[in-house]
Write a structure and sequence with these properties.
- This protein has two helices and six strands; from the N terminus they run αβαβββββ.
- The protein is of the alpha+beta class.
- It has a three-stranded mixed sheet with strand order 2-1-6, with helices on one face.
- α2 links the parallel β1 and β2.
- α1 packs across α2.
- The two termini are 31 Å apart.
- The model has no long low-confidence stretch (mean pLDDT 96).
Amino acid sequence: MHELALSQGIIDVIRDQAAAQGFTTVKTVRLVIGTLSHVEPQAIAFGFDAVSRGTIAEGAVLDIERPPGQAFCLSCEKPVPLPERSAPCPDCGGHQLMVTGGEEMRVKELEVE
């Protein structure tokens, strides 16, 4: 379950930002986790709940945005939606796809006091 390590990374980001900006409480953590990122939002929520205990993020709301997968089809020479990594191009059925979106995972925003 690599989501626990990723959740600890989120707490590290929060701790670093709190030290730099001087806030003491986190009310909301907004994350971007792309649908092609191999990260399960439910596992992140579970891990975040566990690793945030006793930190300034304990009890914070976790708001997760899920951008869809995107690719550029080299055969069609245009961007196409990509629901999963192994999916073919929805237009030509080919597999010459270059992933262009939906792989990201980042802390987008913190609502703090």
